[in-house]
Design brief:
With about 160 residues, the chain is mainly alpha-helical. A hairpin with a 4-residue loop joins strand 1 and strand 2.
Length: about 160
Amino acid sequence: MSLNPANAICPTTYITNFNGCVQNAFYIPSTGNVVSSVDQVCLPKQLVSQAAHYDCLCTTSKLISSCYSQYCATDKGAAQAYASQASYCTSAAAFPLPSTTTTVAAVVVPTTVAAGSASSASATVLSLPPKSGSIPVAATGFVGIAICLLAVFAF
């Protein structure tokens, strides 16, 4: 790999920072190698899914665009980096990664829990409404464990 992986012409005071920035973007942690293009960084993601591949292309091209905007904004390669980012991120938006977030409704029910016979400390216990068809929380023994933990931490 060349000293200047993008062959950019940056101000002398910024070229070292630019090169480091681009090399960081092109670094593949699983192999320890530095590659020379966004496509090479994201090649393994093609085997995962189209969405993962486009997400990688978008993310990596944003890193490269950031390198240009911070250190070599006037270089002719900057315009190409911004155009690639726009293209890759448009594709990534068309093929989003599956969402992994879960929303859980919770109701806080204040409950006084005695911390010990000589103490009058209390705590609030979080009570979740049971899912339809599930066993109530009190029947699982979880509340007893929570009360014990709260009693311990109340001191």
